[in-house]
Amino acid sequence: MKITIRVNGVGYTRDVEPRLLLSDFLRHEIGLTGTHVGCEHGVCGACTILWDGEPARSCLAFAVQAEGHEISTVEGLAPGPGKLNPLQQAFQDAHGLQCGYCTPGMLMTLTAFLAENPHPDEAQIREALSGNLCRCTGYQHIVDAVLRVAAA
Amino acid sequence: MTSFGRPLTRNEDPRLLRGEALFVDDVELPGLLHVAFFRSPHAHARLLSIDVEAAKARPGVVAVVTAADLGEYWQPGPLLVPPPPVPGMVFHQRCQVPLVRDTARHVGEPVVMVLAESRYIAEDAVGDILVEWETLPAVGDLEAALQPDAPLVHDDLDSNIAARVHQARGDYAAAARAAHLVLKRRFIYDRGASIPMETRGVVASWDPRADRLTVWDTTQAPVVIRNGLAAMLGLSERQVRVVAPNIGGGFGPKMMMFYPEEVLIPWAAMRLGRPVKWIEDRLEHFFATTHERSQIHDAEIALDAEGKILGVRDVFLHDTGAYDPYGLTVPLNSQCTLLGCYVVPAYDSLFTAVFTNRTLVTPYRGAGRQHGVFVMERLLDMAARALGLDRAEIRRRNFIAPDAFPFDQDVIYQDFSRLSYDSGNYEPILDKALHAIGYDDFLARVQPAARAEGRALGIGLVCYVEGTGIGPYEGARVQVQGSGKVSLVTGIGSQGQGHATAFAQVVAEQLGVDIRDVEVVTGDTDQFQWGVGTFASRGAVVAGSAAHEAAKVVRQKVLKTAAAHFECAEEDLVLADGKVHVAGVPDHAITLGKLAGLANPMRGAVTPGTEPGLEATSYFGPASGATASGVHAMLVEIDRATLKPTILDYVVVHDCGTVINPLILAGQIHGGVAQGIGNAFFEKLEWDSEGQLLNASLADYLIPTALDVPRMRLDHTVTPSPLNPLGVKGAGEAGAIPVGALFAQAIEDALDLPAQGIEIREMPLGPSRLWEITQGG
Ligand code: FES
Ligand code: FES
């Protein structure tokens, strides 16, 4: 069926099967491969996007469900080509990523979290991160990155 | 200012942070076909018949491939790591096959490959396939597998013994006779999985016009895969390009040769003349990507009255899974690493690797080292208790003295050389750790006060060594570009270790450029032809040293070219900020880019023997590995009702020689500790008696979250390695190695278990297992 989904402010119209996952739509239909897939069963958080500003797992939604909603992905975060937003910059400064596979999901979860709670403490940050798995960093430098943003 | 040794942020980050970095599943090609596999539902079964007609008939299905369709191409995989040259060693090579032809030997072994226009269709078609099996009894338990009537994983062998290696030195029996104390215990370490956040994947594309194959592969060893694929497909190496782009975590299991899918996807792309993609899903990952870690040790230690070790004897079983292409790396690591930081005058170790109807076992971060550390550190804890000694003190008394290096352990290590520790100084590490964690104060004041309040607080303290940076070799090419930027190319792959930054620091140090102007390329066999792979904490040591050597040669070429340009002596030149100038005349500088142009003249004559450009290639092969060491200490509180541990403090003091980038090093240690914590308390693969894995999802197999991993405090000592020009030792696995032993000790201490006659002798724990143990189970 034909659907139009708005992603990072741009409308994309595609003819898709009803069973197509939103994660597959983003990655393979419209080529926004920044959103990653780590489990396809809703646990790892790598596929996290913003759905009308709220974090959501794109592997647990069908693309057709996203019609009429505003989807944001990691590709929409930076203020311009070659630039980083403050959260992205903090991730680099604090070494908050290693392989970078979990990172887009982390950034999207944290974008929503910081919008609601701009000055969290460490315990709140860890709670917010607890639905996003990272196998590389041990989380400490990710927490440090968020603390930098929170202090700014 | 020099960049070497500074905590610089990473070159690779901006692209990853903007979602622009290429991972294997991001590769899209016109006409791409997608693969799904029918995998064995049984741990052990004879294949009677396969009916793929319905699958073939499904619209959108392009091909369905069984073992029979592979013809001559169907071959067992090569032996990636041959067994060590230990006299009397037994080794039975049984390597994995591309598709099951006669017998399935573990759940998840691929049986049929379906190629279709989309992954969705391919998976539908897998559901159309009908296979008839005769199920066979499966073996999973290591001891049961060695019973005379046990079902055979490979029925052409007369037992399930895959290998047996005995290494001994000194006279253990005499040591035991002379000992004041001999302790004998059984230790069990169960299976875990590495779970990188990115699963495996392969994309292959055959270009008939260029007569070349390109393969994107989530491998830690692209050059090795390139060479092997060329041989199997009847191509020359130059016809095959293997790219390991950004890899979403490796940790060992992405270094295998060959996974069946790596053999099949390129073959299919050539056969069908269309590009082919396979991406492992998380369920497949649990069955089809290699595991690590089942071992059972029966160990004994002999000590004198002062707590000095006289000898250790260890007999252990190692689960190698259904096949053993990775040879004996894991059990050899266990065997060798058990010796730890200590003088062990007599050592007698015999291991038997056992075939089971389970997923293959290959190295995963630590790669068997944690088993050895677990056994030795637990034995020392028990000995300290029996002798009335402090835990730190018994370790101190047995440390190898700082003037005893190089220290020959006289056993054959995983690199087949005799294990010799290059350098080390263990007491300062221990002292720093004791001080940082507040050891004396905790035991004298904090713990008694907590106990008086009914709180279960414990402390743990564990020492370890890590053999790192083994050979054979890596290479690197450094070249000044016309832009003035410097490129560094090496054959290893990167899975998040920050090579694009650490290697840039090594090169920048020699060439006086900003690290942002060093472009590091790893993991593309068209860019660099030679290499072995990223494993055994060897990237920074071996490839880093090669980069250093190449950069030094380029520095000489830069100075020589500049000296000719300025008509002065090389000694009078200053190389800094990407430019060269004569000392005292900084205004008349020439850029590296211009010098690169001068070194590549387009007309005229050059002196015979001149090589163009500012470029050099170097190779580095250490004679043996560099031994890093460290101490982990932690304070833990156990909730008496739920037995859930809360880590109150975690200290790591580590010596990995010269540090290239402390920020990256800290990240490596944090990540290792997190995996160690998972391995110690959360992660256990659960199987039923039929060999079915019961917790094959991230909802059931729990890896640590941000709430489970504590803040860690790190400190370092620096004992450079004499075996490489940088003085570095590897650090990739150190974080993970001692955590099991640390948890066991700290939890015992918190619950005061030894006072109740209870010891923790197994890993992993988890609240329910811990509850059973505390009940005497
Ligand atoms: S891929 Fe969606 S939660 Fe893991
Ligand atoms: S950085 Fe690798 S999974 Fe998080």
TrEMBL record, chain A:
The keyword Iron applies. PROSITE patterns: 2FE2S_FER_1, 2FE2S_FER_2. Residues 1-77 form the 2Fe-2S ferredoxin-type domain. Pfam families: Fer2 (PF00111), Fer2_2 (PF01799). Transmembrane segments: none annotated. Keywords: 2Fe-2S, Iron, Iron-sulfur, Metal-binding, Oxidoreductase. This is (2Fe-2S)-binding protein. It comes from Falsiroseomonas oleicola. The lineage of its organism: Bacteria, Pseudomonadati, Pseudomonadota, Alphaproteobacteria, Acetobacterales.
TrEMBL record, chain B:
SMART domains: Ald_Xan_dh_C. Residues 18-137 form the Aldehyde oxidase/xanthine dehydrogenase a/b hammerhead domain. The keyword Cell membrane does not apply. Keywords: Molybdenum. It comes from the Bacteria. Pfam families: Ald_Xan_dh_C (PF01315), MoCoBD_1 (PF02738), MoCoBD_2 (PF20256). This is Xanthine dehydrogenase family protein molybdopterin-binding subunit.
